[in-house]
Design goal:
mainly alpha
Length: 511
Amino acid sequence: MTNRRGVRFVRNVLWGFGGQAWSMGLGLISAPYIANKLGADLYGLLIFAGYIASFVIFLEFGMPQAATRFMAMHAAREEWREVRQVFWSALITNLILGGLGALLFILAVSFFVIRWLSVPEALLPTAYRIFYWSGIGFWVNMLTAPPMGICIALQRLDVVNRLNVAITSGQTLLAVGLLAKGFSVEHMVMGNVIVQLVGFGAYLWVAHRLLPNWGKPVWHAPLVRKLLRFGGWISVGSIVTPALLNTEKVFLGRLLSTAAVAYYGVSYNLVSRLAMAASTIGGALFPLFSSLQATDPVALREANFRVSRFIVLLLWPLTLLLTFWGADLLHVWMGASYAEKGALPLALLAWATLINAAAWSPFILLQTSGRPDIPTKIRLVEFFLYLPFAWYLISWLGINGAALAYLFQMVLDSVLLYMAVARVYEVQWRPVLQSLVRPMGSILIGVLGVWGISEVGLANASSFWRLGVGAVGVGLVSAGALWIWLVEQPEYAVVREIVGSFLHKAKLRQS
């Protein structure tokens, strides 16, 4: 990548990290209060509604990804009329598809709530209302995708993250405030939908500022067919992927209870914050890879190499922290019962997330190359292997079996994606692996030393102090190792340019 592209990409990633860190902080602070205020059954039901929403996302038909890809390609060539056509066609199509998705979501309530979940009878009316409002929220999210796509296509992820931070903050603070005032969980879900509507309006306003002169709304049928052809495999993948990612949670609700979903969901949601780091990088990669596909294949391969390595080294210390100090974290954050039931699942899920994150760059590479069929075909194969395997492990090992099944699926998925990219692009992964051995080994040795000191010297200390020592130790060890082994000359140039730009802007503000 050139320095200019590298700087833009790194800035987008940093904005993404900032937004994710803020959202994660809010979640860490608010989750214990919300979970304890609602109780395990209601909190598990709320989590389950989110899982069901991910199953009906196939009704997007891949439109958000397809629209963003084509808008990015047209914007790179300054073909603004075509960008507007893509935007309006996607918005009108999503208006229709979102309504169908909301209806399907609501119709699914009777099956999932009454026939599948072990919901206490007293909570059934509440469960219905949660699902109804969640369906409306799905519709609003569909409408938000096209204006958000304009921001992403123009590589203005700083704007996207600012708005997402505002929306997430509004939803979290409103939820906590409503529960504190004695309102019910239904009012909390309604409040979330209202904040989503405000966010949709904000995205429309910002998109109009970035791309003025929209013209009259137009629905271009040939263009929609083109978008749907590209998004068709993505749509199929959007059915299979949520099934792969959430099936073990559905099985937990069926075989055990909604309380088991809550205990597992807390650990899963925690490690999903780690996955958000990789997805943030993936979000910045999508418009970048789309523009590089036709202009600079050499830079495309170089970017894939550097990003794959960076993601693994970024999440490696966090994976070790959750492995060795996960029980302490859950005890401090959620209490003794969650620590007792969720420590082992947390460790297994952390490793699964690391392995899955390593495959993000190859996944984006295949999608932007016009081969979204490959990841979908891979996951179709995985699906038929995963279902019986997950059912068996959960029946046998309960929550721990769910985490183990998830780990198995992530390993299989990543191996197959890397094999596919190696075949399509003739990419050699040995240099990536060789560049990871020394930094990962150095961090592992250092973290084992910190863990040994923590176990011996702080055996009788509270979970808070053990976690604090572990976090500081892992942070120092990792920072030193990454500075020695990760940063190469091209990265130095990008860092210097970003720091120089930041200092220059600071001086301008002072003057």
